[in-house]
UniProtKB/TrEMBL annotation:
A single MF term (Gene Ontology): acyltransferase activity, transferring groups other than amino-acyl groups
One of the Pfam families matching this protein, by short name: Transferase
Domain of life: Eukaryota
Originating species: Turnera subulata
Protein name: Omega-hydroxypalmitate O-feruloyl transferase
Family: Belongs to the plant acyltransferase family.
């Protein structure tokens, strides 16, 4: 067993993208004007998420036909997803963000690249140039007219193409974006919706009065009420350090062997996410710091890892699976670096699993109520953000499933990303950005601890 890691491969830094058309699209039917309540989870996620979905050429569908089908499907989809054609606004009385479902429209861009998919190279490795496949705005709109959804379709010289989405995170989380894509694909195939979206965000409203029944060390208070802080305040502060960036690939065999090693009892069930996260946590925590600093002090340092948990099935009663808002909260695990170094992997996996088990109905409600009182964000040493099992590449469009789907990645020391592999559906790619010395330690630990 031994995972491979990959230095940045040669890839084009300019995809030579030319925008051909840029315009607004609107719901295909008139929708009711209303103001949509946003939960306390939605409130702090006012930033854009950019994803790119690559498709191989299909002889039965020209790019022009694909672009037209996607545009028409999006127009239809903006009826049940009317809020995606709305605008975010701050209510001056409540100091909370709301969505004005005013039918003002979403953006649509048609573009072409002078590259082939083969020239782009390894789609798994996040090329900063992928950002050229996602439109940031639509021309001739006022600077205050900020769209919640823009879709760009870009053709490649080989006949393949990409769909690039920019969506405001307050509208959808990863799971509801997957449902959004399933519905887009269904409408493009002239089929009914795959799932009817449930957009009643009052299901995650705070209790009255708020009841914070747990301490929440995973959250940091900013001492302002929701909606009063700067709208695009970051969840994590980006470091100004120069960072190396590498992918560590774990095959399905690697993960299976790790899971066997992590079983405290033969009958114990260990999830792939928990064992990969535990392994990454140990490597990240022990690679931290300067060589000149006291090793003992570093081993006494407490490391806190954060990771997302879907609360839909954990609430009482459970949320509908098709709930469209953000229904993911941040779980955490904390330990001294000494314990992370000396404890067996089975104990680390238990600590990660305990963070998820902590997320009961009452705990989730306590987090939401905490947000009613405080403006705050998740707080820890780093966040594991998993796109591994979201299934974006399983969405079945008339022209086939994507070759690969991924977010546009920005290099962050405090965020480690898990992505699916193109060739091994049960394998995972771990994307890490660290200063050079820390990266060398991380790489060494990653392999040593796999083989231990």
């Amino acid at each position: 067993m031994g995972a491979s890691y990959q230095e940045p491969p040669p890839f084009p830094q300019d995809l030579k993208v030319n925008v051909q058309k840029s315009f607004m699209v609107f719901p295909s039917k008139e929708t009711a004007r209303k103001s949509m309540f946003l939960s306390n989870i939605d409130q702090v996620l006012n930033f854009n998420v950019e994803t790119v979905h690559f498709f191989a050429a299909n002889k039965d569908y020209t790019f022009q036909a694909v672009a037209e089908k996607i545009k028409n499907a999006l127009e239809e989809l903006l009826v049940p997803y009317d809020f995606m054609a709305g605008r975010l606004k701050l209510n001056p009385e409540t100091h909370r963000f709301e969505i004005d479902c005013n039918g003002a429209g979403a953006g649509f861009v048609v573009a072409s690249s002078e590259c082939t998919l083969e020239e782009i190279g390894d789609l798994v490795f996040p090329n900063p140039a992928f950002g050229q496949l996602v439109a940031k705005s639509i021309h001739n709109l006022g600077k205050d007219d900020t769209l919640l959804c823009i879709l760009q379709v870009t053709s490649f010289k080989c006949g393949g193409f990409a769909m690039g989405f920019s969506t405001n995170h307050a509208t959808l989380d990863g799971l509801s974006f997957k449902t959004f894509l399933d519905n887009l694909a269904a409408l493009a195939a002239d089929k009914p919706l795959a799932a009817t979206p449930c957009s009643d965000r009052h299901l995650l409203a705070a209790r009255a009065p708020p009841q914070v029944t747990f301490s929440h060390p995973e959250l940091v208070k900013l001492n302002t009420h929701l909606g009063q802080a700067e709208a695009n305040a970051p969840v994590f502060d980006a470091t100004q350090e120069n960072l190396d960036f590498q992918i560590f690939r774990l095959t399905s065999t690697d993960i299976s062997k790790l899971k066997e090693k992590a079983k405290a009892k033969p009958e114990a069930r260990v999830s792939g996410f928990n064992v990969v996260t535990a392994h990454v946590w140990r490597c990240k925590a022990l690679s931290f710091g300067d060589e000149g600093k006291d090793i003992k002090n570093n081993l006494d340092r407490v490391s806190t890892i954060l990771y997302a948990v879907n609360i839909r099935p954990r609430l009482v009663p459970p949320l509908p699976e098709s709930y469209v808002g953000n229904a993911v909260l941040t779980a955490y695990a904390s330990a001294k670096c000494r314990d992370l170094k000396e404890e067996p992997i089975s104990r680390l996996v238990e600590m990660v699993a305990e963070g998820s088990k902590r997320m009961t109905d009452e705990y989730a409600r306590s987090v939401i109520d905490w947000g009613e009182i405080n403006k705050g964000f998740p707080h820890g040493e780093f966040l594991v953000s998993s796109w591994w099992k979201l299934g974006f590449d399983e969405v079945d469009y008339p022209w086939g499933c994507p070759k690969y789907s991924c977010p546009v990645v920005y290099r962050r020391k405090d965020i480690i990303l898990l992505f699916p592999d193109m060739d091994d559906k049960n394998g995972v790619n771990v994307l890490v950005a660290l200063p050079t010395k820390e990266m060398a330690k991380f790489r060494s630990l990653f392999h040593e601890l796999l083989l231990a």
